[in-house]
Design goal:
It contains 7 helices and 15 strands. The protein is α+β, with helices and mostly antiparallel strands. The protein has one domain: Jelly Rolls (Sandwich). The strands form 4 sheets. The chain has a 7-stranded antiparallel sheet. The longest helix has 10 residues. The radius of gyration is 17 Å and the shape is globular. The model has no long low-confidence stretch (mean pLDDT about 95).
Length: about 250
C-alpha cells in the first residue's frame, strides 16, 4: 500500500470487505441513496467560478458538464457498517500507517466525514481535485459496465498548480492518466488533492462510500463547496469559514 501511494498516489486492497458482508454493505448505501443531493452544471477542476480576467483557454476557465449526487453523513445509519468502519480505531490506524502519517483525525464536519457518492446511469464526474488531501473509499455498487476511475498522479503540488500539465490532460493527452476498475468491497486510498481524477460514465448505477480523514483536528469544509455537494450548510460550516487553507492551492 505504501509503495503504491508513494509511486502513484493511489492504492487498493481487493476484497477488503469480506464477501459475506457484500449484500449488507450494498444495501446500506442503496437504502439511503434517495437522500442524495443531486447537482448538475458546469465545473472546472477547481470548482471555481469563471474568471474573465484570465485567457479563455486557462484551466480555471475550462468548464465541463457534471451530474452527480452525494448523501451526507447525517443520513447514514448510526450502527451501520460505514460509520462503524470510519470510527474504528484499528481502521483509522491502518489508514494512518498506509499514508505514513503520525496521526490522522476524523472530520468535525457534520456532513462530510462519511458520504455516499451516487452516480445513476448517465451521470458524469469530470476531471477535478478534492478539497481534502486524500480520501478512503469503498465501492458499494458496481455499474453494469464502465464507471472506471481515472487519475493523474501528483499532477500538482503545494504552491504550484502545473497549469500546463492540467491543460494537456483536459485536451485529451493520456500519458499521465492511469485507470482503475474497482469491484464491490474493494478499498481505495487516494491522494485526491494533488492528483486530478474523474469517473468515466457507466451503464447502471455506481455507489461509493467515501471516508474523510485530516492531518489536523477540527476539519470542516468550506461553505461554498458544502453547498455545492450537499445543497445545504450548517452553522458549523459558517463558523469555520474564516479559517484559510494553508497549502496555497486554488480550491
Amino acid at each position: 500500500m505504501r509503495e503504491a501511494l508513494n509511486d502513484k498516489g493511489c492504492a487498493r486492497i481487493d476484497g477488503f470487505i469480506r464477501s459475506e458482508y457484500h449484500d449488507r454493505l450494498e444495501a446500506e448505501v442503496a437504502g439511503i441513496a434517495d437522500k442524495a443531493h443531486f447537482s448538475h452544471g458546469q465545473i472546472t477542476p477547481y470548482f471555481n467560478n469563471d474568471e474573465p480576467s484570465l485567457p479563455e483557454d486557462h484551466t480555471r476557465r475550462r468548464f465541463s458538464a457534471f451530474s452527480n449526487a452525494f448523501v451526507a453523513m447525517d443520513w447514514f445509519p448510526e450502527n451501520g457498517l460505514c460509520l462503524g468502519l470510519y470510527r474504528h480505531p484499528a481502521f483509522q490506524r491502518f489508514v494512518t500507517d498506509c499514508l505514513e502519517e503520525t496521526q490522522l483525525y476524523t472530520f468535525d464536519d457534520p456532513l462530510a466525514g462519511v458520504v455516499a457518492n451516487i452516480m445513476p446511469e448517465g451521470s458524469s464526474l469530470p476531471w477535478h481535485y478534492d478539497t481534502n488531501e486524500f480520501i478512503v473509499s469503498l465501492l458499494t455498487k458496481k455499474p453494469l459496465s464502465g464507471g472506471e476511475f481515472e487519475y493523474c498522479p501528483d499532477l500538482r503540488e503545494p504552491g504550484d498548480e502545473h497549469y500546463d500539465d492540467v491543460k494537456n490532460v483536459l485536451d485529451g493527452q493520456r500519458d499521465k492518466v492511469k485507470t482503475l476498475s474497482l469491484e464491490l468491497g474493494d478499498l481505495q486510498i487516494f491522494k485526491g488533492r494533488f492528483s486530478m481524477h474523474r469517473v468515466v460514465e457507466g451503464k447502471g448505477e455506481r455507489h461509493t462510500a467515501i471516508f474523510g480523514y485530516a492531518k489536523e483536528p477540527g476539519f470542516i469544509g468550506r461553505v461554498e463547496r458544502t453547498q455545492q455537494v450537499h445543497g445545504r450548510v450548517l452553522q458549523a460550516h459558517i463558523d469555520a469559514e474564516q479559517n484559510a487553507r494553508s497549502d496555497g492551492l486554488d480550491d
